[in-house]
Amino acid sequence: MNSGDKIKIHVPIMADEFASGHKPEWLFWIGSAGAFDDRYKKVTREFVKILTFLNIDYAVLGEEEIDTGDSARRAGNEMLYQMQTLQIIEMLKAYEVKKIVTCCPHDYNTFKNEYPDLDGNFEVVHHSQFLQKLISEGKIQINSDVFKGQKVVFHDPCYLGRANNEYDAPRDVLKAIPCNIGEMHRNKSFALCCGAGGGQMFKEAEKGDKEIFIQRIEDAIEVNADIVATACPFCIVMMTDGIKYKNREENMKAYDIAEMVSMAMGL
Known about the structure:
The chain folds into two domains: 14-132, Rossmann fold (3-Layer(aba) Sandwich), CATH 3.40.50; 142-265, Rossmann fold. By secondary structure, the chain is of the alpha/beta class. A four-stranded parallel β-sheet has the order 2-1-3-4. The chain is globular, with a radius of gyration of 18 Å. Helix 7 packs across helix 8. The chain is built from eleven helices and eight strands. The longest helix has 17 residues, at 78-94.
């Protein structure tokens, strides 16, 4: 198949694969945002296109997938978090899951750093790391100049960067795409939060002079960015909202790195 051909997507379901005697190498954890948020559904589709095109051996849980409990724990509902966690760990062990890839840094952090406390031990990879490895192995070929000449800045998700010290993978992915890569003045460990993690997505804003996501988009405007790239469902929603709030929709876009890779591959 050439990358220009239309990708016929068939998403394997773990229960069906397991029942047929096949144990997929990877579980692609969609996450609540990837399944229900209209903006991030687009990211899920583009990442699935990449997995399909490269014949990655993966499956998803489908209707069996429930929330990891990250937001519940951050909001203070430890009981709900542990109920969700124990149910998920039991399910993944039943399917003999060893390796998980997810587009959500919050789920990545929870699986990697918190599930082991309840005997949930898995190899967990964020999609930025997954794409970085595929690019370094020469499996991803960039065929399009769709972003050529555009200035791209990367907004570091808190749970990918400061929580897990991963700053290089998403930037390495962007370096493989023809574009002009820049940085906001606050970047990497000094980056500003998008404002919607830790359960903030689901509550009213607290008192203050300015919403954090507005300040973050102003950081991007200050360096004349055409594209704000990120790698987190909360971040992409907040960056998109910030662009709308500042009336910059005509000349500034927010993309997840998976969308940019898929578009640059011509999928």
